[in-house]
Design the sequence.
């Protein structure tokens, strides 16, 4: 199997601001033509990393390579890297076509080539008919499209996106996700996207790096990050989950036999070396089955719970259950118009497939 070329290599990068250490020996690679997302809460180091890739910050230690070339000492304007900011950063006194042309003029492209490229990019982001307008005449989504066109026009090797959708309303964010993914596939440019929104990351990314406390907690595909979190931080930050305090009875390669708070002993996958004693079991709410769905799975466990709360959310109903004094949350898809009809206070069979649970490291 041919190894994918590396667009970016981050090697043992650390950065401190006074007494605060923003990054702690971070290392990862980003493949050429990859949509790579850095996901994490505020203060995790993702924006600092993005600024280093752009050249606006320098690491205290470590190195950063762009297509195999060390770039730490290269200033931002000499890197083939462009950035789309949350604030769009458009020039208000210029028309849209002048905004897109600005970077090309600085690169000394000839006029005919600039005119052709500007027209191409405006059409690509569906803004060709508005070329003579100014940014103040646009909606937030339209300004975002122009910021993308301007950043992509010089044909950068890497496009950095610093939470570019956070200022948009929900419907527009969802539409822009599709447009960003299509742009990335069509242009073949490596996209590095920074966000704190787990749904954005899962929806658009080829791979995700989850950052926390200045360190990379996990790197993987969206499916790997969601279905196989390596520790409690990742399981807690990406989506919702039930955390159950369990007792580890036995361990084997990749598995642990645990006793649950409601008395069942089960053997489940483990995310790392697990010692006997107390541990945490993670089970996603949508993996919890209720009623008839909970019974009959050969590789599952079934017990009884009581519905203590329910929230109808259109496509899903979210339940809170009391299982022998332990609270569990479950999500059930509403396949019919009537939605889910399990009443409050009902006692129902509850179950899950053991392979969908995880014993987590700290």
Sequence:
């Amino acid at each position: 199997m041919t190894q994918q070329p590396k667009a970016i290599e981050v090697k043992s990068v650390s950065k401190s601001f006074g007494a605060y250490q923003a990054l702690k020996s971070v290392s990862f690679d980003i493949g050429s033509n990859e949509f790579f997302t850095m996901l994490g809460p505020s203060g995790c180091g993702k924006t600092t990393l993005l600024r280093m890739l752009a050249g606006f910050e320098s690491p205290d230690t470590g190195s950063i390579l762009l297509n195999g070339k060390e770039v730490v000492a290269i200033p931002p304007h000499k890197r083939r890297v462009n950035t789309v900011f949350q604030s769009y950063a458009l020039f208000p006194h210029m028309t849209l076509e002048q905004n897109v042309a600005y970077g090309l003029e600085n690169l000394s492209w000839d006029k005919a080539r600039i005119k052709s490229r500007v027209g191409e990019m405006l059409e690509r982001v569906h803004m060709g008919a508005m070329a003579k307008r100014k940014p103040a005449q646009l909606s937030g989504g339209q300004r975002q499209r122009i910021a993308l066109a301007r950043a992509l026009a010089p044909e950068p090797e890497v496009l950095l996106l610093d939470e570019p959708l956070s200022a948009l309303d929900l419907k527009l964010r969802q539409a822009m996700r599709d447009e960003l993914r299509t742009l990335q596939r069509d242009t073949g440019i490596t996209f590095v996207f920074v966000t704190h929104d787990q749904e954005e990351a899962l929806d658009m990314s080829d791979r995700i790096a989850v950052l926390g406390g200045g360190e990379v907690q996990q790197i993987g595909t969206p499916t790997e990050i969601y279905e196989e979190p390596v520790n409690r931080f990742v399981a807690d930050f990406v989506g919702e989950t039930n955390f159950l305090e369990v007792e580890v009875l036995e361990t084997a390669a990749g598995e642990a036999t645990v006793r649950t708070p409601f008395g069942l002993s089960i053997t489940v996958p483990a995310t790392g070396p697990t010692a006997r004693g107390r541990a945490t079991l993670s089970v996603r709410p949508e993996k919890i089955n209720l009623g008839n769905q909970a019974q009959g799975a050969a590789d599952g466990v079934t017990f009884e719970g009581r519905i203590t709360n329910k929230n109808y959310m259109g496509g899903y109903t979210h339940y809170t259950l009391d299982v022998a004094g332990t609270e569990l949350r479950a999500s059930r898809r509403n396949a019919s118009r009537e939605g889910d009809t399990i009443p409050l206070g009902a006692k129902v069979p509850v179950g899950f497939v053991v392979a969908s649970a995880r014993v987590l490291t700290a």
Q: What stands out?
A: The radius of gyration is 24 Å.
